[in-house]
């Protein structure tokens, strides 16, 4: 297990940067696409056909799922600490580990279901009809399982950090420390 976690961490770090770059690029392209559609609609009285379908089936799915692992790696998800603020660090680590295990189970199930869906839609080459043309949407079905799988890896790494905290082991690695920007 000791060899597996550093390998998972290195793999996630290696894959996470291009995935985040793709997510950022798609946000920018989505912005350009929507602005072009709005300008075309109001200036030329001719909206870009299929903007809603492309935004909702491609851009939004990628923007939601691809960054999940990076946010988890930086401990950036919303965490309400009303009840744990005065607790000992080891107890908070145990509670965080328990919550992360529950999250891993949930995300694991979600990953399985979106993977099955992606496989099924790829097999039939799913398309949406937009006017007289067809938009293939099956490639976009793969954003969710890829993002969710990377998210699961990040959760496993978080669990290892929380368990070490619960056991009272100090964490010296800068990449595993919480971001203290709120302090």
Briefly, what is this?
The chain is mostly helical.
Give an account of the 3D structure.
It contains 5 helices and 2 strands. With 183 residues, the protein is mainly alpha-helical. It has one domain (4-171). Strands 1-2 form a two-stranded antiparallel ribbon. Helix 2 (51-65) runs parallel beside helix 5 and helix 4 (89-123) packs antiparallel against helix 5 (143-166). It is elongated, with a radius of gyration of 20 Å. The two termini are 33 Å apart.
Could you estimate the helical fraction of the residues in percent?
55-70%
- Biggest sheet strand line-up: 1-2
Main pleated sheet: 2 strands, antiparallel
Overall pLDDT: 89
**Total number of distinct structural domains:** 1
**Termini separation (Å)?**
33 Å
Strand fraction: under 5%
Secondary-structure blueprint of this entry?
Layout: H1 4-43, H2 51-65, H3 68-73, H4 89-123, E1 127-130, E2 133-136, H5 143-166
Antiparallel strand pairs: 1-2
List keywords for this structure.
183 residues; mainly alpha; two-stranded antiparallel sheet; 2 strands; 66% helix; elongated; disordered C terminus
